[in-house]
Every structure is written in C-alpha cells, then in structure tokens.
C-alpha cells in the first residue's frame, strides 16, 4: 500500500520569506502523480501544484515550486515570498494511474506571520 | 457558481439514525470521488465513480455505507445506523477524463457530520 508522510505537523514563516514543506512517500510504482493541496481555515481544498513522476522537470506555479526527488521518494513544496493568505493546512497526496483515489498525508499547518 | 457543491453543509444526528449527503459535481466532469476527513488528518479515499459506474471502493467503505450516482450526474452517500466513529467531514471531488491524462480533482466544501 502507498503511504504518504508529512513529518512537519506545524510550521511558521514570516511574511515575504521562503518556506519549504516536506513530503515523502512509499511506492513500488514507476509512474504516478503527486499533488500539493491547500486547505484554508474553514474553506475547501484547492490544488496548489501537481507533478507527474515521468517528468524530470520540477513543477512550478508562480510562487510555488516543488523539489521532486524520485529516487529518494521525496516531494517537497517551496513557497516563496510568503503571503498572509498562504496560511492553511497543506496536504501532500499520491495517486497511481488507473486507480483514482488519492492517498493523502496528515498535513502541515502553515502560519504566515505579519 | 460552477464549482462542486455539497448539501447539507452540516448534519447532526443521533447514533443509529441514517443520513444521506448529496454532491453536485462540476457539470462537465464525468468522474466523482468521495473522501472522509477526520479532525487533524488528511482526507481518506472512500469511493470513485466514472459516470454512473462505481469503479473503486476503499476498504473503509463498510457495509453501512452506500454511494450512488444515478444518470452520472449528482451523487449521494448514505450512512446507515450511524456510529460516533462516523463523525467526520465528508468531501466530494470531481474531475474530467481527457484520454489517459489524470485530471485534477476539484473539491467541494464538504459535509460535516456529528453523531451524538
């Protein structure tokens, strides 16, 4: 079974600074998908960024980028120029192709301080 | 609003009662998913529909749980004989299929269930 581990239950960062959230996963698959979702307080989950395992290039979406290390089974999220609106729970998720349920980590609660 | 919608947003029930939740996916999405999220945890996958067919079920989906998606549009999740352990946020998500590409799942706001 695939497992996703987020080893940082809580993190904080000063506004405008950079923070990196960690995620590791366990799988025997060669092809799969990885995601970071954001869940603001009392609001719904939204996709931050996704990565296909067959792509060597790390995904980037504006201030958000990932460091995908396939051999190490590591998928960290870097948030640059942190903003107050980035305060949220961040979940790392894994999905195998042809099986459509995502497996999520326990989440990291990020607080951006003014 | 063209996002995923869920009703009700909150439900309080007594142990042993049956409850039903509804999910309306994004209109052009043919894939629909149910997840359960307990406090302080990440969502756990329950089940998946492609159109009206239920193609994947988690072992978490006990016999007391049943999900349907008639006509491949909205979906319902029913819990029979609720237990206190069923208290959680029930999340619905939808996505569209484009060839073999796994499209992004878009989540609804969830239904928070409290079983007394």
- Rg over CA atoms of chain A: 14 Å
**How would you sum up the major sheet of chain B?**
7 strands, mixed
Largest sheet of chain A, in brief, is: 6 strands, mixed
Give helix and strand order of chain B, one letter per element, not per position: EEEEEEEEEEE
Give the radius of gyration of chain B: 14 Å
The number of helical runs of chain A is 0
Distinct helical segment count of chain B: 0
Instruction: Give the overall form of chain A.
Output: globular
Mean pLDDT of chain A: 93
> Using DSSP, what is the number of strands of chain A?
12
**Spatial separation of the terminal alpha carbons of chain A:** 41 Å
Quick one: which chains have the greatest interface? A-B, 23 and 27 residues
Counting DSSP E segments of at least 2 residues, the number of strands of chain B comes to 11
- What overall form of chain B do the CA principal axes indicate? globular
Report on this structure.
The complex is a heterodimer of chains A (114) and B (116). With 114 residues, chain A is mainly β. Chain A has strands at 3-5, 10-14, 19-21, 24-26, 33-39, 46-52, 60-61, 64-69, 74-79, 88-95, 103-104, 108-113. In chain A, strands 2, 5, 6, 10, 11 and 12 form a six-stranded mixed beta sheet that branches. In chain B, the strands form two sheets. In chain B, strands 2, 4, 5, 6, 9, 10 and 11 form a seven-stranded mixed beta sheet that branches. A four-stranded antiparallel beta sheet of chain B has the order 1-3-8-7, with no helix packed on it. Chain B starts with a strand and ends with a strand. Chain B has strands spanning 5-7, 10-13, 19-24, 31-37, 44-50, 53-57, 65-68, 75-79, 88-95, 106-107, 111-115. In chain B, a hairpin with a 6-residue loop joins β7 (65-68) and β8. Chain B is globular, with a radius of gyration of 14 Å. At the A-B interface, β5, β6, β10 and β11 of A face β4, β5, β9 and β10 of B.
